[in-house]
Amino acid sequence: MAGKEILDINKLCIGYGKGKRAKVVHDQLQAKMFTGELVCLLGENGTGKSTLIRTICGFQPALGGEASLMGKDLLQLSEKELSKMAAVVLTDRVIVPNATVEELVGLGRSPYTGTFGILNDEDKDIVHTSIEKCGILHKKKERLSNLSDGEKQKAFIAKALAQDTQIIILDEPTAFLDMPARVEIMQLLRQIASNSGKSVLMSTHDLDLALQMADKLWLLSAEKGLLTGTPEDLLLRNEFQTIFQNKGIEFDNKTGLFRVGYDYNHEIPVKGHGFEYVLLRRAFARNGIKTIRKAEKDTTWLEVCKNVSTSFKYFENGKCVGQEKTIENLLTLTLNNR
Ligand SMILES: Nc1ncnc2c1ncn2[C@@H]1O[C@H](COP(=O)(O)OP(=O)(O)OP(=O)(O)O)[C@@H](O)[C@H]1O
């Protein structure tokens, strides 16, 4: 069931400059966001994800159209009003290396504190809970310069949480992180959205993670503008396939994941199944060999055998002419016999 509407973008025009010299990056953008949703904004390099995020955050003016946050015209909100409604985490964030995690997260309370930024007991509690929710309580007193990239990202997310806003907007929060850290950050943002009812909008290049974890995707492309929907509905509508066509990415209908598109120059039948079969296919595809299911008529084929331990057999004229323990050796044998 859809939550309450939080963000409404209507015929929004984004870009740079003014008047005749304006550079329009996108026009007529439409989208909505609801409470409790994790939305991933996807698109190729240079399609305008950062421009859209900066416009929604009020960091650059819209060239036209409307955007409202919790029913208020976002483009007319003052910086102070906006800071109580939307917390922003940008990639090119300014890092204060000498600040501790606690001090950084404390800055998230600035929309609510006086000029000197003095935190009262309630602010301190919120800072503590925010750090705890992000799983870095043990790093509370640590300086940012001593944190890993993943921990730093968590500290910035904790700061956004401490800001106590309905929406959190992040520009590529998983950039520069390794795979486990990417998954961890996405899981954290998922939890924030589903447990606290906040809305989280993040841009990312992590297609597979976004497909698995986002409630909705905003798919930005030069040709089609902004397409929105659940990952599954966008897949059913073939939107990914159209957008990434001819760009070296293929969507695998069997796994529901994207994979690199290969250029095949050879074909070989394979008999077998299981994990070994999947890995064999992948290694061969990378080397330009398309694997097909062995048919009755085939006299040359590869076979995955799992009798005692796994081995791979090479058959020629119906006879086994080679048995290998590794995919590497099987590949060499196949390439040599081509
Ligand atoms: N300050 C600027 N002035 C004029 N044009 C700009 C400016 N910043 C970005 N652009 C242009 O706007 C377009 C969209 O850029 P943007 O950075 O929003 O894309 P992006 O989707 O975030 O890319 P990436 O995935 O590489 O971060 C690009 O053509 C870019 O060259």
From TrEMBL:
Identify the residues that the record assigns to the ABC transporter domain, covering every copy.
Answer: 4-247
Known Pfam families for this protein? ABC_tran
User: Which PROSITE patterns does the UniProt entry name for this protein?
Assistant: ABC_TRANSPORTER_2 (PS50893)
Entry's CDD domains?
ABC_Iron-Siderophores_B12_Hemin
- Transmembrane regions: none
Q: Which UniProt keywords apply?
A: ATP-binding, Nucleotide-binding, Translocase, Transport
Under InterPro entries, the record lists: AAA+_ATPase, ABC_transporter-like_ATP-bd, P-loop_NTPase
A GO molecular function assigned to this protein is: ATP binding
Q: Which domain of life is it from?
A: Bacteria
Work out whether the entry's keyword set contains Cell wall biogenesis/degradation. no
Role noted for this protein: Part of the ABC transporter complex HmuTUV involved in hemin import. Responsible for energy coupling to the transport system.
Q: What is this protein called?
A: Iron complex transport system ATP-binding protein
Protein source organism: Marinifilum flexuosum
State the organism's lineage.
Bacteria, Pseudomonadati, Bacteroidota, Bacteroidia, Marinilabiliales
